[in-house]
Amino acid sequence: MLTEPAPAPEAAGYLIEMLNSMAAFAHKSNLSNSSVFLNAAAILVWQECRLRTEGPPQFRDGIEIVWPDGFAPRE
């Protein structure tokens, strides 16, 4: 059974959450190139969401995105 697709801000928020957690795991595993790549991908999703919807991604309740130094997207 197919479900309705999530609105763009929710879908972007979920994707950013997933990329951010994968980047944190890569960083702790000393895979610095992967960590940088995943963080850059998360920022790209953030920027694309703002471009397409003119608003920020929407995150699930209780989720806090922790950006490494130098990787926080511009508001």
Question: Would you kindly provide a written description of the structure presented here, covering whatever features stand out?
Answer:
The chain has 75 residues and is mainly α. The chain contains 2 helices and no strands. α1 packs antiparallel against α2. The longest helix has 22 residues. The chain is globular and about 40 Å long. The termini are far apart. The mean pLDDT is 89.
Compose a concise summary of this entry.
With 75 residues, the chain is mainly α.
Report mean pLDDT, rounded to a whole number: 89
N/C terminus separation: 38 Å
Order of helices and strands: HH
Number of helices: 2
Number of strands: 0
The largest sheet, given as strand count, sense and whether it forms a barrel, is: none
pLDDT < 50 stretches: none
The residue fraction in helices comes out at: 55-70%
Look at the helices and sheets and give the structural class: mainly alpha
